[in-house]
Write a structure and sequence with these properties.
The protein is of the alpha/beta class and about 240 residues long. The chain has helices at about 35-40, 60-65, 85-95, 100-110, 115-120, 130-135, 140-150, 170-180, 210-220, and strands at about 75-80, 120-125, 160, 185, 195-205, 225-235.
Length: about 240
C-alpha cells in the first residue's frame, strides 16, 4: 500500500514535515519559526478601522476620523515588508498552497484576532472574479479562512459580480469608484447577514478599497459588526 503522504501534493505537506525556517533557515523548524515571527511580525499600533500603523496611543488615523470606513475594526498580522512579500507571492501566484497553514498561524498570533474569530458568526473570504480564480486555480483568502475557522467559513454568500481594472496607480477615490458594484450577496441568502457579526478576510490590504466595498454591501444588508482581517497590510513610505 502506498503511503498517504506519497499521494499528496508536496505543497500540501508544508507545515507538517520537519524543515528549515523559510526566513532564517534554522533546522529543524516550522515553515516560519517563532523567532522570525517575533522579529518580523511584531505587534504594531495600528488604526482600529483601517490597520495603518500609528504612533503608540493613537487609535484612529486622520482619514478614518474624517471618513469612517464601513468596517468596525480592522486587524493585520504583519506589514507587507520583507520577508513576507516573496512568500505571499509563492502562496498566491505560484500555487504553493501549503503556505496557508503557517500564514493562518501567523494571523492567529496577532493581537485580537482570536477574540474576533471567536465572536463572529461568519468568516467570509474576499471572493475572486471568475477569470482570476481560473488563472490562479484557488482563492487564497478562502484557503486561509478554512485554516482559521472552517466551521464559520462561507465561500458562497459574498460574491464577486464582475472583474475590475487594475487598482495600481489609482487614487483612493478612483479605487472606490472602480469597485462600485463589484460585490453582492447571494440573492437567496442575503437575509442571513442581518444582525450577524462578520469577519471579512483577505490576504493583502493596500488602500482598503476592496475590503471597504465588500463591507459596504454587508452593512447595507444589516450586518451588526464587521471586522476586516488581513495577513499583511502595505504601509505608507516614510
Amino acid at each position: 500500500m502506498r503511503s498517504s503522504l506519497a499521494t499528496r501534493p508536496f505543497s500540501s505537506l508544508l507545515g507538517r514535515l520537519p524543515s528549515q525556517c523559510a526566513v532564517c533557515r534554522a533546522w529543524p523548524s516550522q515553515p516560519v519559526c517563532d523567532a522570525c515571527v517575533a522579529r518580523f511580525a511584531p505587534p504594531t499600533p495600528r488604526c482600529a478601522r483601517c490597520a495603518l500603523p500609528l504612533p503608540a496611543g493613537v487609535t484612529h488615523c486622520g482619514e478614518c476620523v474624517r471618513h469612517p470606513p464601513p468596517l468596525d475594526a480592522c486587524l493585520a498580522a504583519c506589514a507587507y515588508a520583507w520577508p513576507w512579500p516573496g512568500h505571499i507571492g509563492e502562496f498566491k501566484f505560484q500555487g504553493q498552497t501549503g503556505w496557508a497553514r503557517p500564514f493562518a498561524t501567523l494571523m492567529r498570533s496577532a493581537p485580537w484576532v482570536e477574540p474576533a474569530l471567536e465572536a463572529c458568526d461568519l468568516l467570509l473570504p474576499m471572493p475572486l472574479s471568475t477569470a482570476r480564480l481560473r488563472e490562479r486555480g484557488f482563492n487564497q483568502a478562502l484557503a486561509l479562512a478554512r485554516r482559521l475557522a472552517p466551521r464559520k467559513t462561507d465561500a458562497t454568500l459574498l460574491l464577486r459580480t464582475r472583474d475590475t481594472t487594475a487598482q495600481s496607480g489609482l487614487t483612493r477615490a478612483e479605487r472606490l469608484r472602480n469597485l462600485r458594484g463589484a460585490f453582492a450577496l447571494e440573492p437567496l441568502r442575503a437575509a442571513e447577514i442581518e444582525g450577524r457579526r462578520i469577519v471579512l478576510l483577505d490576504d493583502v490590504m493596500t488602500s482598503g478599497a476592496s475590503l471597504f466595498a465588500a463591507a459596504a454591501v454587508l452593512r447595507a444588508a444589516g450586518a451588526a459588526h464587521i471586522t476586516g482581517l488581513v495577513l499583511a497590510r502595505t504601509d505608507p513610505p516614510h
